[in-house]
Amino acid sequence: DLINLFFLCIFYLLYIAGCVSKHFIVRLRKKSWIFVAAATCCAITSIIFLGVGLKSLTHGANDVNEISWLVCFVEGIIWVSLAVSLLVNGSKWIQILASVWWVSFALLDSVAKVEILLKGKGIRVFDIITWPMSLLLLLCSC
């Protein structure tokens, strides 16, 4: 999550810098259906994480295996930012950063899921939901 927050901050800083610079040009370019589908999946995942975080915050975490509300909110913000990065047309640097972010996100997420499986720990529903979307991000980076 820390690496994703780093990419998120750099992404928004570059995007804001591009918006306020004199060289900012709005380019309307059609996105491929795969980008729209991936962004939609990321947005839905974000809503799920934020909903679970809100439920956990209001009802309190009773189970040791439950995810903390703060972790859910951070994950929700990361997923919604991934959706934004899939749809926004920015400068060349923003596009490069977004592609690197998608690749690193997919690889790190896959490694974490494989590690959980190899240790024999049970896989959570969140892991099942997010793994295919991580691989979809990897596809979008190509």
Provide the gyration radius in Å: 16 Å
The share of residues in extended strands comes to under 5%
Overall mean confidence score, pLDDT: 85
Query: How many H/I helical runs?
Result: 5
Shape: globular
| Gap from first CA to last CA | 23 Å
Largest sheet: none
Helix proportion of residues, in percent? over 70%
Keywords, separated by commas or semicolons:
globular
Write the layout of secondary structure elements.
Blueprint: H1 2-20, H2 33-59, H3 69-87, H4 92-118, H5 125-141
Helix pairs in contact: 1-3, 1-4, 2-3, 2-5, 4-5
Q: How would you describe this protein?
A:
With 142 residues, this protein is mainly alpha-helical. The protein has a domain at 92-141. The chain is built from five helices and no strands. The chain has helices at residues 2-20, 33-59, 69-87, 92-118, 125-141. Helix 1 (2-20) crosses helix 3, helix 1 runs antiparallel to helix 4 and helix 2 (33-59) packs antiparallel against helix 3 (69-87). It is globular, with a radius of gyration of 16 Å. The chain crosses the membrane at residues 5-26, 32-54, 66-87.
How would you summarize what this structure contains?
With 142 residues, this protein is mainly alpha-helical. The protein has helices at 2-20, 33-59, 69-87, 92-118, 125-141.
